[in-house]
Every structure is written in C-alpha cells, then in structure tokens.
Amino acid sequence: MLSAQEIALRFIDTRLQVHPDVVRYIQEQDEPGLIDRILAQVPKDTVVVSTKHIPGLHATRDGTRFLLDPSVEVVSGSSGTSGPVNGTGDYLHYFRDRYSRLGGMIRSRMGAMPIEGLTRNTRYRQEECTIIGMVVDVSTTKNGHRIAEIEDTSASMSVLFRKDRPVFHDAERIIHDEVIGVKGKLSTDGRLFFAEHLYRPDIRIDNTPFKSEQPGKAVLISDVHVGSNTFLDGAWNRFADWLSDSDYGYLLIAGDLVDGIGIYPGQEQELTIKNIYEQYDAFGAMLSDLPSRIKIIVSPGNHDVVRGAEPQPVIPAAFTKKFPSNCTLVENPAVVNLQGVRVMMYHGRSIDDMIGLIPGASYDQSGMMMEEMLVRRHLAPAYGRRTPIAAGKSDRLIIDPLPEILHTGHVHIKGITTYRGVLGVNAGTWQSQTAFQKQMNVNPTPALAVVVDLQTLVPETFSFAEPAR
Ligand SMILES: [Fe+2]
Ligand SMILES: [Fe+2]
Fold first, then answer.
1. CA distances from 367 to 29, 372, 422 (A)
2. Distance 300 CA to ligand 1 centre (A)
3. Ligand 2 center to residue 108 CA distance, Å?
4. pLDDT > 70: what percent of the chain?
C-alpha cells in the first residue's frame, strides 16, 4: 500500500495538489490504478484535487427525508428513553454494542479478520492484514513509540505504532475505549502487531448533508446558568428583544439551563437564586417571554437537576411548571429533526476528558473537539473518567445516524467547525467569567447566539454583549 507521501508525490508530479481526504480514500481503497483513473478525469484548470474528482463517488443522500412532523421531530432522546442501569449485564451489552456498531462502520470500508484467527494461524505472520478492536489500554513506550492493547470479541492484541512512521500522528490521539482499525503485520513470534495505518469509524468522504427545501433558521445557544451572580441578564434581555423582532423558527438550548445547587464547593456564595425550583421558574419565565411561535428545544447539562450520568433524562415535570407549551424537553444527548435537518444536541461534558487525552487540545478549541467526536463517531469515547456514563443495553452516545449539525456547549467558549459536511456549533454561554474559571485561566465568550440557515447550513454569529465603552 502506498504511503500518504507517495500518493501526494504522484499528484505533485503532474503539478497538482491533493486534498488529504483524497489521499486517505486512495489508501483505504488500496486499488492499483485508482490514481491514474483520477488523474485522467481531472479538468485542466484544477489546482487541488478534491473528492469531487474521484470517479464513481456520488452523494450518498438523495435529498429526501420522510417526516411525521414537518417542523420538529425528536429522533432520539425523547422523554423516558434513558432507563435505569441494571447491574453488570448492561455494561457487557453496552460495550458489545459500542464495538459492533463502531467496528461495523470501519468494516464497511475494508475487510478485517478476527484477532484470534490472526494469531492462531502462522501463515498470516508475513502478510499485511487489518484487525478492528476497542482500545483497552494505550501508553507511550520508553523509546517514545505508542503502544495500544486492542480487543475484539475473540481475543486481544498489542499494537505498536512506531514514532518514525506516518501513522504515529494518528496514534498519538488514541483514546481509551474508542474503536479503531489497524493495518499492518504481525511480528514473527505472533505477539506484537506493527501498525502502518490507523482507521477510525469516521464520516464517509462522500457524505452530503441534507438541506431543508423550505426557508427556516435555528438559533443555537447553551449554558444559560440562571441563578448565578455571573448570569448576564442585560445581554439576555437584548437577545430576547432581538428574537421577538426576528422570524426565526427554532431555539435550541444544549444544557446548563440553570446554575444548580451543590455543583462545586462554595457555589452558594455565587448564587443569586439559592433554590433550585426557583432557578427553573426564572428560566421558564424567560422562555415564556419569548415569542410563542418559536419552537424551543431544551436538553440538560451537568449543572441541571437530573442525574449526571449520560444519557441524562429530561428535566422532570416538578421543575418545568413555568416552562411555556412551545418548549420540547429532550434528553442529553438527543437528535432532533428541524424541517428534516438533523441536529444532535450534546452538552459536551466529555470535552473535559478529551482535553486531557488529546495532545495539543485546549478549551478554546471546541471546534476541534467536535471533530474528534465525529471522527470517532462517539460523543464520549473515554469511559470511567470525568464523564459519567450510564451503560444501557445500547450505546446512546454513538453518533449514528449522522446529523447535519452537532450542537454542543459546556466549555463556555465559542467554536464552529465543518468536518466532512457536518457543521459543529458551540455558541458559548450567558455567564461571564466565574471565580473558578479565573483561577483556571478560562476566558469565556459570553452572550453569543449562532443562527443556522436550514436551507444552506451556513452559520452566523450574533453578539449581545455589553457594547464596549
Ligand atoms: Fe456551563
Ligand atoms: Fe456544563
């Protein structure tokens, strides 16, 4: 199989640059003659060869989506979906489900063999082959190579990613409990697998997002934190007035609706509303002041009253008495269809974990964090860290079906990205810097709303912050 550098050189030889997605596609197909077929069809004035120049690769969506409700439809995460956890049996089901669904996404692009079959039969020792497994452990050796223990349903295998190979860059970002595919060769003693390529479940490069045929715009926000003394009520009032003058159809709020109580030590000193019911009453009154024609969709976050383990259930009725009737409560995570455009709402607690595990990641890169979720097709890959996960029979944190928009929050810093056709939006917060954030050197970007046009999927950011004097 050609390396990425060899593929790039083939294109440079003909004075063309090549997009990394095309390089990856060529590697995955491993088909002799594919580069020549691409080069034969590239128009004369092309500078960069992109996926549209790959012969036979067409849009995977036909542009039709059947909807029971033409405006808002909850695809997953409706009230009552997340049940309780019943002992260790569910953990087994949970991880099996995670492995089979994410592994299936990789397997749909390439053949792979069971780990046990590879080790049992010596005839594979010198052959290049692919195995798919869940990462049980990952570490760096004393010589600076990366080593991962991966496991499928048959056996486990130690996989070495040498620091002098191109695959090392991908291997540095391996996270516990994610599902990966590796292509390479087994050592002669059959105990170690030398990886040359790493594959993640990822998004197909020919993914073509669905776009609404009807006009419609959605406003995306999160982290309102009502009840905190740093909640920006002046900015919120400007936002509410602006919404009243707009013709936007949808408002989505991705968690941390209120500041909550007992979330961190000493929080009571920073609360203007110290009663949790009153915090939700104040939030409900704010939503009631917005135009009733706007369909509001609300999911919880780690500051909300429900259990912290994800999937988090909807906010219980005892707390939503003041919420208006145009408000739909969903779980965290949830997928909603807006005029057919799928929006996956996820508060984003796992970003705390990913920042600690991915080299170079930081809180002001929520766009990059959303890409890391999409490439793994999982909202919270690392299990047993700061993101509590309630292991049910199926893994609700898998990103499937693929949405057009991934809407997150939690980090309080705006981030927008587009990865293989999927738009990632984190709109920030409605709370100014807290004492804790100051201590941690986190600089929030408050009072922003991101509006997405459902016909084009183009985002636009509006600020309601106090004008600078
Ligand atoms: Fe928050
Ligand atoms: Fe949060």
1. 29, 9, 11
2. 10
3. 35
4. 96
* Among candidate residues 230, 246, 255, the one with its CA nearest the CA of residue 290: 246
| The total number of residues written for the chain in this structure | 469
Q: How far, in Å, is the centroid of ligand 1 from the Cα of 429?
A: 7
CATH number assigned to the domain covering 217-463: 3.60.21.50
Helix (H, G, I), strand (E, B) or coil at 155: coil
Ligand nearest to the CA of 223: 1
250 exposure class (CB count in 10 Å sphere: 0-12, 13-18, 19+): buried
The residue-averaged pLDDT of 452-457 equals: 97
326 burial level (CB within 10 Å; 0-12, 13-18, 19+): middle
Instruction: Note the pLDDT tens digit of each residue in 160-197.
Output: 999 999 899 999 999 999 999 999 999 988 899 999 99
Tens digit of each residue's pLDDT (9 = 90 or more) over 74-100: 989 988 887 776 666 678 889 999 999
Comma-separated ranges of CATH 2.40.50.140 domains in the chain: 110-199
Q: Which ranges in the chain are annotated with CATH 3.60.21.50?
A: 217-463
Compute the distance from residue 255 Cα to the ligand 2 centre, in Å.
7
Q: How far is the CA of 449 from the centre of ligand 2 (A)?
A: 17
Pick the CATH number of 110-199 from 2.30.29.30, 3.40.50.150, 2.40.50.140, 3.40.470.10: 2.40.50.140
Measured in degrees and rounded to the nearest 5, phi and psi for residue 63 equal 85, 5
Strands 459-463 and 341-345, sheet pairing? unpaired
Cα(459)–Cα(444) distance, rounded to whole angstroms?
Answer: 20
The closest ligand to the CA of 387 turns out to be 2
